[in-house]
Amino acid sequence: MSNLTAREKAFMYAITLLIIIVLGYFFGIRTLNNKYDDYREELQTLQEKKEFLDQLRENNVSMDKEIQVLEASCKELELSFIDKLETECLQQYVLKTFEEEGCPFLININSADVGMSSVTYPDGTTSPDGLVCMQIGVSYSTTDGYTVTQYNRTPDFTEGAQIPAEETIAELATQMGQGDYAKRTGYHEFLSALKKIANENPSCIKVTSITATEEVGIMTVSATINFYGTSLRNRLSVDDSTKPYTSWTGHRGVDTKGGFIGFPYICDYKDSLWYGCVTMNLKEGSQVKRPFAAYWANVLFDAQLEAAGGDIKVLLNFEGEEAPAETQPAT
Length: 331
Known about the structure:
Shape: rod-shaped
Radius of gyration: 44 Å
Order of helices and strands: HHEEHHEEHH
Number of helices: 6
């Protein structure tokens, strides 16, 4: 190296510097350029992903709002039907409405489930959700414009009445065909009650039939009323309605210790609301069915009742005293 001239040494330094520059380019700047391109490509990818996620987030917010709107619509539709169709609530609501409208003389009330069409999916399967319907049928009697009326224990003709039954009967007997007893009531009151029921919830309560039959001096008026509800597997709404046809609004705390099942001929439980009341139709006589009795015993019972003047209290020696516990009807 020391034998080289200054020119050769300068040339060698130039060559060495050139090699260093070239190597620096290939292993430094070029590598950095490549990484820069990769970073720019990755940045673009991340920006596109961010834009996608931002759009997705906006879509999610919009979808959440749509879901809330749909849920509100579903809840509104669910609540437009009666949530629970309970027979006892429907019946007491119907009876109470007729009573309030001045038509209390019930002949018969019955209930029945009405079959509704099921919903079939496009794949042929049947939806577990569907419409349900409970039908309440009632028959009432009008008054005859003459006879003294009685609803439940008004007037009270039982042994426990505050005014002796004989006095009440003697007083009312002179009023037959006069005053309020001279008016035939029940027909217009019947229609008024049906209108009130139908207007209570026009979407879910429908009066489907009305009939009126002329009897001897009176009319028997009948109607069927349909109540519509839903049976839903995954219900969204909570029905906290206290409508009279969805919750019990009748009497509470009624003493049933003496029982209503297996009622005797005369209610002999002193604390009962029906104490002293006769539960059989004396006019039917031998037509009363007693499947437990021998045929001759059935005939003998009617003969003895006739001999007692049709007064079952005389036949059974009922004196208005509370029956021993062992003879009270079971609850």
